[in-house]
Structure formats: structure tokens, C-alpha cells
Amino acid sequence: MSEFVTRHVDNGVMQLRLNRPEKKNALTLAMYEGLAEGLRAAAADPAVRVVLLGGGADFTAGNDLKDFAAAGSQENRPGSAFDFLREIRVFPKPVVAAVRGVAVGIGTTMLLHCDVVVASATARFQIPFSRLGVTPEGGSSMLLAGRVGDARARWLLMAGEAFSGRQAALWGLALEAPEDDEVEAVAMERARLLAGLPPKALAESKRLLLEPQREKLAAVMDEERVVFSKALRSEEAQAAFQAFLSRAKG
Length: 250
Prior knowledge:
alpha/beta; three-stranded mixed beta sheet; 49% helix; five-stranded mixed beta sheet; 11 helices; 2-enoyl-CoA Hydratase, Chain A, domain 1; globular
């Protein structure tokens, strides 16, 4: 388990928390591995009924771009991120997400695999793949339109425009958008409610909800992985990463 990912189980709820606040929980290789490990542990533990994902003041700023910038000569560098995305895609129990602050890139796309998303009204979502010279991941090229509509999904994925938690709730990406200081409490309330329900019935309900798209989604995510990995090593992506890192230093 990464030092930047903590987990705690209480009354059937496993809290998986990102804990790298000084970097707005930007995700590193070890953090992806910690999240995937936590999901595998939760799936195998009958005492865990629900997983609650959170990050405190910020959900996550997405992948640490220093890692992306270093990927030019590493064929399989995105592997840990995609392994985590696979784990959350196949996870059999309910997943609740508590989103405050920023939810960028994979910080938004992972939510497409969560069963309940509680987002602060002022949270800032963004899927800036095109702006960074890369392509959709996490099944977003297939799933996002089902949540927010085709026209809006095309705009968000291609233009990379930011949107708020209030908009996310209006569009169907989040269940609700309480005030910032209420997010964790509301998310925990939802998680505890689910944890108190018959677990086999919940698991079967989730399976039935996902079954119609299971094979297609797996195929889409496999193709996204190939295309994203190629784009990651492209000249335009590497130039975008370096420009971002230069601005950050300035």
C-alpha cells in the first residue's frame, strides 16, 4: 500500500483515501498500485460491503505529469493506471465517491465506474486529454455519453472544458452536489446505507446493471489503452507535458 493511499474499514465500509494533499493528490505509479491493492482486498473480504473513495480537500489532480513526461521511452508506463481502471471496472461491490476540489483526467473517468458519486457543488471536473495530446481512457469514450449525453460528452472529451460539481449532478455524472463541508458526511451516509443492505442482492443488482455492456466495455478499454499509450509517447504529448511542467515551475 502506498504511503499516499490509506485504507480503513469500519462497519462494513472500507475508506480508500488519497493522501498527497501538497500535490492535490496527483497520482503516481505507487498510488495506482495502492488503489488497485485496496480494491482487491475489499473484494476478497466479506466484512467489506462498500468502498468509499475520497481525497480530502481535493479528490485528485489526475496523473502526476512528471510520470507522463518520463514515459517517452517506456513502452508500458501507463500500465499501473490501466490496471487500476480494470480493478474498479470489475469490482463487484458498491463504490461510493466523495469528490471535493479538483477531479481531473482519471479523477473524472474513474467516477464512471462508481455506483454513487457525491460531489461538492464547487468541485472542478475536467477531462483535458486532447489539451495534453493524449486520448480518452477509463472507458470514457463509451461511458460518458451515457451519463451526460452525446453532444456534451463529445465537447467535454474533445475540448477539455472544465465543469462544476453542480453541473455534474445536473447532467447525471453525480447523484447530488451538497456544499463543500457536507460532502464526506453525505457520502458516508450513502455508503453506510448500502453497507446495511443484503450484500448478495446488492452484488447481483450491480452485476445485472453492468452485464449488458460488460464485454463491449472491456474491449473499448483495451483499445483505449493501446491508443493512449501510443499517444503518450508522441511528440505533441511530450511537448504539452513539458510546457505544463515549465509553467508549474514558473
